[in-house]
Amino acid sequence: MLYITQLVYLIEGQEKAFDQFEAIAIPAIARYNGKLLLRVRPRKEDLIELNMDAPYEIHLVVFDSERDFKAFGQDEERKKFLHLKEESIRSVLMIQGHKM
Description:
Layout: E1 2-10, H1 15-30, E2 34-40, E3 57-63, H2 66-73, H3 76-79, H4 82-88, E4 89-97
Antiparallel strand pairs: 1-3, 1-4, 2-3
């Protein structure tokens, strides 16, 4: 199992384009033996300590294998909408790990 945590940072004002991209990308996860475990938009009042920019969203996804994760990245339907991702996302911090 491969766990992926993403801290997603948006371009201000591009929330709608981001939501449109996520509406395509999130269902595609399951086609590649993956599952979205957590998707959260942290509110400032919920942060206990912060020594970096606060992300717009935090995602935790699990895939059966790295091969499945790479195949998800090459999904043809998802690739048709990458322009929405590029329009809306300023940066992503991706952390890969395994359950211990």
